[in-house]
Design goal:
The structure is a homodimer. By secondary structure, chain A is of the alpha/beta class. Chain A is about 40% helix and about 20% strand. Chain A has 12 helices and 15 strands. In chain A, helix 11 links the parallel strand 14 and strand 15. The interface between A and B is large, with 82 and 82 residues. The first copy, chain A, binds a DNA duplex (30 and 30 nucleotides) through helix 1, helix 2 and helix 3.
Chain lengths: ~400, ~400
DNA sequence: CGAATTAGTTTAGACTCCCAACTTAAGTCG
DNA sequence: CGACTTAAGTTGGGAGTCTAAACTAATTCG
């Protein structure tokens, strides 16, 4: 029997430095602009230590002095803000019908945001090649701008294990694709590559850029053909034993409902997945994958126009979604649940019923505090989350150093 | 809007020492007996550093030299084992029909294990008083033995918030009882007191003392009148926003099943909770709370004797339990799921069907690796977990110091 | 213009880990 | 039996970190 009684990594004095560099960096990010004295007072670090840390971060161009000083008694303070512009983090996303890439600098500023239509169902070889080509272009562009690329994270709609191998991606038709190694090779081995599930990256994006950024118990729900949850619990991503957490699509919500791909009946996904949503509105045959966006827009338009059938279908779907989410909320007690993907345009009609059901279905009073909202991050949330994931590495202690130029 | 963008605590050189003391302590615990040289080789710490750390731990009597040396070429090694006997951790448990207390030393050795019948439904005042009296006796006994009590953790069947206030404990009839403060006061303010949900402590016990100790993604299921899950994810307890995680009892598993206390139909708890289990075996009126243990024993006896009705009922219950667990496993992807409480004696008949259903109900291949077993910790698992929780504090860096005697 | 106030730097000291040399205590072998 | 080999553990010096206290710097107040 394998014993998991692993021993944590020892620490040394350099780790103290790293920890405190991150403390200062995060403090400035959260309280920008601020002075060295502010940092010392708030963190408890000594003034001298703060000065030393700040000098280090200025050298790395992770901070910048705004020169601006305040106007009150005593010596004026030099204000600090986050810079980070010499470093870039890249996030990418492959889906059944598009590729996306987003780059941000370490200060969090959006550097580029590309999106192109793409038939993701053409097999892993073509998908990987397209991703690699896009990644190379992004990296080349960023390098040309003089930025160092700290890493690339790719989001995939499917099960991804800890090593970055895509185990199953039903909508892409992928099995056991070692995307991480392939991309790493395609980028000349020069850039760190991570691969993760799109829901996990969605929640990473919300955790860094959403209106509730920093919420330590956060859930993000992808609203695509399939439904997946990205979970942050206790401030850290919840990945599970093999990285397969968040498969909420098969919670039973409708007794004797329609048969689901998993073999059971009335699963959340088969009832409030996108196909079901469109089907429930009841106009003819289900749309082909390429026309899902149009179909959703159409649905939203009809709902906005007061179409009774659509309104009723969306309300019912909201209730069922809320039921599924109540199961999740009972298990995880999240603070925020964010709906993403195609749920966003339909949120005005889904949310009221979903919230009501969530409130009544959670055992803890007041739904355990859980608040249900729709994402405001727009399209390519997973790609944005990929970039966020790279920035998380910085926050975890991988403080980048400027090339000796 | 409250921003959660909190900044982590700064580190200093003393934290390095603490971290490394824990590294050495945990290494010895996992690889006892071992030499200083073994520790240095395995952890990467310098020999000199290890010597210094070990000296410190010997002074605190957290380690002990066994004097025993090996028999091979080169200077013989002084072997080290965990001591910890001067320090005691206490766990307690209150339930509808009993009180329990367990004490262990920091080496993990069981010091005492008390259990007494008690009517927990007599209201919070009587329950708190009884717990306090028991705690005082335990602490007095340990002190008389010359042990320093590091802390007491109490398990309660209900929702407990982060401050140790029991929000709701249905089976005890408690609401908003500040048990932590009450007990802390009753113990003269001299001992740290923690309060937690019994399922959370059950999983803490399994995580430290179970056959799969150390498994970072572990779930424990209480099998009492209610069903609750204690969750460890990524090596840390999953508590959720307000500490209300693990409420698995209301996953819908039987379409149009019996009405549950929560108002819906076919909830896991109403279908495979203890009352339902006994009811499904079909002999007369449901037993009163005091006779549940007897009723379960009777069920096990009849199943062992081959009673068709009981066997069929248990198999069906196992299937439904497996269905509920598959929802949990899809969301959390645990490595081990341990059944506790009254499920243990019934496990031989519940497990096969539950495992089959779990295997087919989880989307990830091979149930995502999840293995379902019955607890081997016996009664008072929550109390044992309470003691484990106190020891977790040591592992988190609260290294105890011997009183200057 | 000097006192008060606040920001930030310098310097000395304590603590930690690491490295290299050393001491200690065995077994090995001629 | 004694020199050699092997391995465990200790000692002393060095580098890096934080802290405290003294110091310098820049501004407002009176």
């Amino acid at each position: 029997m394998i014993t998991h009684q692993s021993v944590p990594r020892p620490a040394d004095v350099a780790d103290v430095r790293t920890t405190n560099l991150v403390v200062v960096l995060r403090f400035v990010r959260a309280h920008s602009p601020c002075s060295r004295a502010d940092i010392a007072a708030a963190t408890g670090l000594n003034k001298a230590t703060v000065s030393s840390l700040v000098t280090d971060l200025l050298d790395r161009r992770l901070l910048r002095e705004t020169g601006v000083t305040e106007n009150r008694i005593g010596r004026p303070a030099t204000m600090l803000v986050v810079d980070g512009s010499p470093y870039a983090a890249v996030g990418m996303e492959i889906n059944a019908d598009y590729l996306a890439a987003v780059a941000v600098d370490v200060g969090g500023r959006r550097l580029l945001s590309w999106r192109r239509a793409f038939d993701g169902t053409g097999g892993p070889a073509r998908g990987t090649a397209a991703l690699a080509a896009l990644a190379r272009r992004v990296v080349a562009r960023l390098s040309a701008d003089g930025r160092r690329v700290l890493g690339v994270t790719v989001g995939v709609p499917g099960l991804v294990d800890a090593a970055g191998v895509v185990r199953v991606a039903p909508n892409l038709g992928w099995h056991d694709v070692d995307l991480r190694a392939d991309l790493h090779r395609a980028l000349g081995g020069a850039v760190d590559v991570l691969v993760d599930n799109d829901a996990n990256l969605g929640v990473a994006a919300e955790h860094r850029y959403g209106p509730h950024a920093g919420t330590p118990d956060l859930v993000y729900l992808t609203g695509e053909v399939g439904i997946g949850a990205g979970i942050i619990a206790g401030g850290r991503p919840l990945r599970g034993f093999r990285g397969y957490s968040g498969e909420i699509g098969h919670v039973p919500v409708v007794p004797d409902g329609p048969r689901c791909g998993c073999g059971r009946r009335g699963c959340l996904e088969s009832v409030v997945g996108l196909a079901a949503l469109i089907g429930a509105a009841g106009d003819g045959p289900p749309p082909t994958p390429e026309h899902l966006t149009t179909a959703v827009d159409d649905l939203a338009t009809r709902a906005g126009a007061g179409d009774r059938q659509v309104l009723a279908a969306l309300e019912l779907s909201g209730t069922r979604l809320g039921l599924g989410l109540s199961v999740l909320a009972n298990l995880l007690n999240p603070e925020k649940i964010v709906l993403g993907g195609y749920y966003v345009p339909l949120a005005p009609w889904l949310l009221p019923a979903a919230r009501a059901e969530l409130g009544s279905g959670v055992l803890a009073p007041d739904a355990g505090g859980a608040v249900l909202t729709a994402s405001t991050l727009g399209h390519s949330a997973a790609a944005l989350g990929g970039a966020a994931r790279v920035l998380d590495l910085v926050d975890a202690g991988r403080i980048p150093l400027l090339d000796p130029a």
